[in-house]
Amino acid sequence: MNWDVLIVGAGKIGRMVGVVLESQPEYSVTVADTNEAALAEVAKLGLKTAKVDVTNEDELVAALKDKNAVLSAAPYFLTPAIATGAKKAGTHYFDLTEDVKGTKFVMDLAKDADTAFMPQCGLAPGFVGVAGYHLAKQFDKVEDLSMRVGALPRYPTNALKYNITWSTEGMVNEYCNPCEALVDGKLVEVPPLENLQTFTLNGTDFECFNTSGGLGTLCETLSGHAKNVSYRSIRYPGHRDILKILLQDLKLQERQDLMCEIFNTALPVTKQDTVTVFCTATGTIDGKYEEKSFLNVSTPMEVAGKEWTAIQITTAAGVTAAMDLMRTGKLPSKGFVRQEQINLDEFLDNRFGGMFLGKPLATSAATTKAA
Question: Are 83 and 113 in contact (CB under 8 A)?
Fold first, then answer.
């Protein structure tokens, strides 16, 4: 069965997902936004576009007519409106949000739904939950599951050692909100920017610290099986301390709009990025105390005749693989669907999921148009 998909959001990720799906014969894509300039850039990629105000429910439902699925690649605060429209239209719903409150709204909405609602399909939350659960289920009992993800510039030059690679609003949001974790078997909220750790990979020093939303629903899923489960964002050393000055000492956590403006003004965008996923689990297997890890580093690559950044590749791989697995019957097509319901091997064997490992995506004749 072919799928007709509406992507809400004509930004970096929405464009990438559109090109990837449109390059395959089983998918037809329309990208929706209110920003006419952004839609004009999408049209240059050969994708269909539509000007849609998703805060107008009737307008959104009309745009979803005859669509099999909708992907929200819009800011996190639009999640409730888009998910509600999807339910009213009878359309499968996917999103990329890291926002905990928005995901709980989607979870409640999905309880009596006739279609599937699968939020948090990007990188973190998203793929990191798939990888983390893959490790956890190999243990009879998990002592610690530590999940770390970083989307970073390859050549940092400023004091923050950071460049804009994805949504500034999403990044600031996860720096400011409480973080879910399992601690001594109990689901708790821990403060962002705390639990600082340092480590070295391939001769490069990194730090990581609590940020919000990266675990998705994994804590709930592993309750009773794992003692401690945590998520941290990876950055170069010194980044966290500067954030604490800005957000806590200067109280910019109370002015997230201003913090976003400062970042967007002062930090350059880079296409030379890297994405690291580093998960470690310890626990007992057949009575022995063991440790297992998963490590993957993604870099920019060419897809459908165009060069894309590592964060675009990994985020697009997460949601397109989830869609494809659902379309082919490997995921439930009704109710709330968790990321950890995806089998890691099936994900990486999928044509879209394989992009995570740097595998080239074979494209159809439509690619020439989409590129």
Answer: no
